[in-house]
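FYI - complex with inosinic acid, inputs then prediction.
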Amino acid sequence: MDEDVSRVLVNANEIKDRVAELAEEIDRDYLGQKLLLVGVLRGAFVFLADIAKKLKGRFIFDFISASSYGPVGTESSGSVKLLKGITDPVDGLDVLVVDDILDTGATLSFVTGYMRSKGAKSVKICTLLNKPDRRKVPINADYLGFTIPDEFVVGYGLGYNGEYRNLPYVGVLKDSVWKS
Ligand code: IMP
Ligand code: MG
């Protein structure tokens, strides 16, 4: 375990098994349809890659960059900025937005609205994690890995000041790291 992590919340094996189950569910639900997977940078990149490798159906990828955080810290600012939008046509496509975590809900509510405004036929959400205690916008994931308590976590794509995204598990960051 990384020295900056106080405990592991979801280990690599649990993630692997859950990712496989989610991919099966997605394949079943979108059978015969061509899906557009939209990853929300940067937190989604590990989860999106792992889930995509497990999918058997037809799909294409794109990425969006939206941020509800300032450049530093653990507290969401609530306002979402679109840093990189979608450039390819979305009209008539079924879209699955993939992200690391549903926290206040501001980011995914913004991103799903944006995809609808681009003409998506349907828009659903797949997130690895959910922190329901923090929700400010009423929004749920259609595909969800794990519900976790209100603690700041890192790993498997989730970062703190850009670091720790490569950890193979989801762990709680030590208070001493983000309060120092
Ligand atoms: P929301 O807009 O508040 O739902 O925030 C969503 C984004 O904040 C996620 O996509 C993450 O990038 C980031 N985030 C929220 N909670 C955590 C956390 O515990 N660790 C790392 N990033 C987080
Ligand atoms: Mg994010």
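The first strand starts at residue 5 and ends at 10. The mean pLDDT is 93.
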